[in-house]
Amino acid sequence: MTATTIRGRFQWTVAVPIAALVVLAATWATHEAWPVLVLVAVALVASVVCAVHHAEVVAHKVGEPFGSLILAVAVTVIEVGLIVMLMTSGGEGTSTYARDTVFAAIMITLNGIVGISLLVGAAKHHLVSFNAAGTGAALSTVITLASVCLVLPSFTTSAPGREYSVSQLAFAGVASLALYGAFVFTQTIRHRDFFLPVSSDEQGLMTGLLDEDEDGHADPPSDQEARLSAGLLVVALVAVVGLAKLLSPTIEDGVESLGFPYAVVGVVIALLVLAPESISALRNAARDRVQNSLNLAFGSAMASIGLTIPTIAVAMIWIDGPLTLGLEPTQMVLLAITVVVSGLTVVQGRAKALQGFVHLVLFATFLFLSMQP
């Protein structure tokens, strides 16, 4: 790669997030006209691409699994802000917006991102390998968080409907935060090796950790470049979520005109917000770094629950109205099937393209039933 190419890429990846933020500020008050909405959509797509670029720069500097963790947490923190913002705006579907968005994030990550990563990785490399111990720990954490925060509210009796009482919501928030913190400590300090890319033999069996020094990658970026990319990553993610919010009324109108349930709005917003992680996971899978892809997928699902529920629990002090967290029967069945399939995928420590396709079928089923319940 020539110096001119590097400078050109550097310039546009710096300019686009700033320009997107300018578009966000300029269109925040008035954005109903179609030309403005097209501009917002273009800025949104460009911001997603830039977010992926800067996330990968930071990840290359800090190494795995810190890189995946940074992107997952950065996206989720801003996603939480979007959820709270939309909940405070009132309107139809406010009470179930947090539940529908978090559940959509779980289905997107556990089936969409995992599925496409396994399919692409296995199609290109015949078999993909990962550390079943680390990935299994991540999956069990996601299952526990989802059960405590989304399944149990449908069966408790202290509050009407599919809601938690105040004390139950407080307990769920504290338990979620504690469990998420425990996993992050395990992933980054106590057992970091379990979440690093692995090498494998011809049968896809893990033989050890991948030698990152011999993979043909460029040298890590300098400290200055990494700091700049970290700042621009935040700017790009703010732009992604803000621009997604501007498009949400148009999405709501489109959903209503098509006769789809309001929950589809949460699905579309979750797809937009999780786009940077999806692209990054896909790139890692193509480079035979499926462990990084799974770190992103399970880490994003975990952060989506473990950070959202505590924040919503605190925000309910100021937000009027009920908070419906309990899943509907169809959603619980989809979650149960996903848990079983994910367990069968993870336990082997290797996967074929078929397993990726199975997850994608589940993801397609989720999308279809969201539109046609």
From TrEMBL:
InterPro entries of this UniProt entry?
A: Alkaline_pH_Ca-Antiporter (IPR052946), NaCa_Exmemb (IPR004837)
Question: What UniProt keywords are attached to this protein's entry?
Answer: Membrane, Transmembrane, Transmembrane helix
Where do transmembrane segments lie in this chain?
12-30, 36-54, 66-89, 101-120, 132-153, 165-185, 230-248, 260-282, 294-319, 331-347, 354-371
Q: Which domain of life is it from?
A: Bacteria
UniProt keyword Transmembrane, yes or no: yes
Q: Which residues form the Sodium/calcium exchanger membrane region domain?
A: 34-188, 229-371
Short name of one Pfam family = Na_Ca_ex
Q: Membrane topology type, per the record?
A: Multi-pass membrane protein
Location comes to:
Membrane
Q: Name any GO cellular component annotation.
A: plasma membrane
Gene Ontology MF annotations: potassium:proton antiporter activity; sodium:proton antiporter activity
Q: Does the keyword Transmembrane apply?
A: yes
Q: What is this protein called?
A: Ca2+:H+ antiporter
**Organism (species):** Nocardioides psychrotolerans
Which lineage? Bacteria, Bacillati, Actinomycetota, Actinomycetes, Propionibacteriales
